[in-house]
Design goal:
The chain has helices spanning 19-30, 54-65, 80-94, 117-145, 156-159, 166-186, 218-222, 229-238, 276-287, 299-309; strands spanning 10-13, 34-38, 69-73, 99-101, 148-153, 191-197, 249-253, 256-260, 264-265, 293-294. The radius of gyration is 21 Å and the shape is globular. The protein folds into 2 domains: 10-260, Rossmann fold (3-Layer(aba) Sandwich); 264-309, no CATH class. The model has no long low-confidence stretch (mean pLDDT 95). Helices cover 41% and strands 14% of the residues. The termini are far apart. It has an 8-stranded mixed β-sheet, with helices on both faces. A two-stranded antiparallel sheet has the order 9-10. The structure holds 1,4-dihydronicotinamide adenine dinucleotide. 1,4-dihydronicotinamide adenine dinucleotide binds at residues 14-15, 17-21, 38-42, 44, 46, 55, 76-78, 103-106, 126, 130, 153, 155, 198-200, 202-205.
Length: 318
Amino acid sequence: MGRISFKGRSVIVTGAGGGLGRAYSLEIARRGGAVIVNDLGGSTTGEAGETSTQYADRVVEEIRGAGGTAVASYDSVATPEGARHIVQAALDHFGRVDAVIANAGTMRYGDFETLGMEDLNALLAVHVGGSWNVIQAAWPQMKQHGYGRVVFTTSSAGMLGNAKLTAYGAAKGAVMGLMHGLAEAGKPHGILCNAVMPNAMSRMTANFKPNDLGENPWSAALGRHFDPSYTAGLVTFLASDACSTHHGIYSACGGRIGRVFVGVTRGIADDAPLDADAVASGWEKIRDAARGYDVPAHIADEFRIVAEQRGIEIPSRD
Ligand code: NAI
């Protein structure tokens, strides 16, 4: 066992019956954590049909076989009631919730014209609704303990974009809106929220051919680095008490772990409104990150940055 320990800690991992969630659960359990292995066991698109308890059960067996502690949960994250059951299972079995890894997800793939509102709504329900529901159910008692770690799951489809994953990308982008807000809401209570942008072979991605996500000669070359274990270290760290930062997005891709951030260039500024002609002539400067950029930590921080950049002082209140 390494330095980071989950002894005495209880962690909920949603969608943990395979792929990434399984890898997170195994690693946290290996480090002494008690894990709620939640998985509905449905199809990768989330279309109504059979669900299976086998996915969660298998991971629980694996953890117990290795001497770890885990309990299976088969509720859907997509309803508040399902989420309450998941959190209740953690409280009943382990007495507390220290961390939530909101990982459950499904995907719908296709040209924009072929996807409907039912696709968008289904993905919003599991990704945004699922994160919202489980975190909201766990929030009061994390707040009460003054401690919590939350790991959201976004995607390069939401952060960078892909033509065939518009509905999925919209849901994953919305997950980031939720993370940004909860990171600020949680910090005063010791609840640190961060997000991960994984890339891994799993049930969800197994059928992708190298160019399904656009011309991509690189993914095959990066091959073995797409095992979920290449993301597990990052997520385990973010879910642990060793992580003391919040409001970050981290990418695990092809063996590289790095921070993803929203930056704003210095751009152009004037006291008078900049009209369309001024924008056109300043366009290169507006776009040019090489002239410098800032990474606002939250909404008010962008106001601070602009005021400082422009030499505008805060008026005195007298
Ligand atoms: P996966 O399909 O192996 O795992 C997702 C699990 O979530 C499945 O086992 C599924 O049964 C479960 N699930 C689906 N709906 C659920 C619900 N309503 N309630 C409870 N469980 C539910 O796929 P993978 O790749 O391990 O995905 C994990 C997360 O990572 C997902 O949120 C996915 O969108 C995200 N992701 C994965 C990437 C990859 O390259 N594999 C890339 C970017 C993001």
